[in-house]
Amino acid sequence: MACSQCMNAGNKAVKMRKEKDTMGELDVPDDKLYGAQTVRSIMNFPIGGIEERMPYPVIIAMGILKKAAAKVNVEYGLDKKLADAIIQACDDVISGKLYREGHFPLVIWQTGSGTQSNMNTNEVIANRAIQILGGKLGSKDPVHPNDHVNKSQSSNDTYPTAMHIAVAMELRDRLMPGLVALRDTLDGKAKEFDKIIKIGRTHLMDAVPLTLGQEFSAYVTQLTFGIERVCSTLPRLHYLALGGTAVGTGLNTRIGFAEKCAKEISNLTGIPFESAPNKFEALASHDAMVEVHGALNTIAVSLMKIVNDIRLLASGPRCGLAELLLPENEPGSSIMPGKVNPTQCEALTMIAAQVMGNHVACTIGGSNGHFELNVFKPMMVANVLRSIRLIGDGCQAFNKNCAVGIKANTGQIEKIMKESLMLVTALNPHIGYDKAALIAKTAHKEGGTLKDTAIKLKILTAEQFDQWVRPEDMLGPK
């Protein structure tokens, strides 16, 4: 069997050791810190391969919560020597070193409670602590994965705790930098373009004028509201399930354990986590995850609109709107020389579509908490984390490689606006809707200008038209 006949890069058999769990004995690669329960999960869930591996932020979060629990457990009787070794092992997890070395091989598609990843973490930390203390790998002596590393915990409360820690950290460190950078760049463009008057469009058809700055100001506000929506979810996200153990009662914990762990996790992360006020809700439902992804989904909707606008306004360069000029980053065609495409726009719209799909999966997962435990946890957190990373990275790339270099094609903007028939709207207060419509329809039918048509129809003089139809006077009430 592949799980017990692991091969190294040189195709030589890796030395194995024996480890036991409550179901029996298994071979474990001697160069790995995990144990029998991890191997059993590898055997039972050969799904997807390395690309479906439990997300890195979840494992880092597991290391953080195990470190916090070890510190607090000293107050409740855990031997300090063992606790110190566990804490040192947790630091190796938190650094990412052990993840990169392949000690966390399990995939998302396992038990829906995340039990096997919790035990993977317990086994790795226990064996690393045993190494630190000079013991024998797999002996569970002097550090036991369940009795010491998992003391006062259950997979049912550790995994949702890791979910909240991982998502909160990624929102802060991955999503917000990209989102804020793009918002700020577009805000700068809104100010830069504030005096450029252009034709507006509704229903994809010509409408009355506005400034290019006003058009961009809508994008800025969309992203600002998106940032605010994410921030509004944080109070629920900052509630931690740790201390609820199996079903939320806190069996096998001590009074104060949950609150002290939350405080310690806050100290380790710099995020104001609190013990969840109702552990039954924290285990049985993941409404906070759905809420967070709802904010991400709304951001995806905003990005789709913003970026589609930008690429449509930049369409051309000769036969489209061409009101915007985008940076030219790479050749756009293998057959059409000189073609350049809005590739950054395309990447970000694909990201938006993927995030919308992730939201469907997250919503279905969140709606399937049965009785005292939701068992869609790994899938839900994986989708939330993927959406955070895609949006954060996508915004950074779009900002750097497109947004900062957007220019207004003022000559084209002026040309299009002069050709618009909707400037006739300025005549409504002076000659009425029906006469204004006659001018516009006749000009369109005959291919003439509004001014020439108004004069030809003897509705206006040239002086009246010039006085009443001024784009700069059509930007709203003064």
TrEMBL record:
Query: Which InterPro entries does the record cross-reference, listed alphabetically?
Result: Fum_hydII, Fumarase/histidase_N, Fumarase_C_C, Fumarate_lyase_CS, Fumarate_lyase_fam, Fumarate_lyase_N, L-Aspartase-like
Give the keywords, sorted.
Lyase
Q: What EC designation does it have?
A: 4.2.1.2
Fumarate lyase N-terminal domain location: 24-357
Molecular functions (GO terms): fumarate hydratase activity
**Span of domain Fumarase C C-terminal:** 423-475
Q: Which GO terms describe its biological process?
A: fumarate metabolic process; malate metabolic process; tricarboxylic acid cycle
A GO cellular component entry from the record: mitochondrion
- SUPFAM superfamilies recorded: L-aspartase-like (SSF48557)
Q: Which HAMAP family match?
A: FumaraseC (MF_00743)
Tell me the protein family, please.
Belongs to the class-II fumarase/aspartase family. Fumarase subfamily.
The protein's name in its UniProt record: fumarate hydratase
The scientific name of the source species is Pieris brassicae (White butterfly)
| Native organism taxonomy | Eukaryota, Metazoa, Ecdysozoa, Arthropoda, Hexapoda
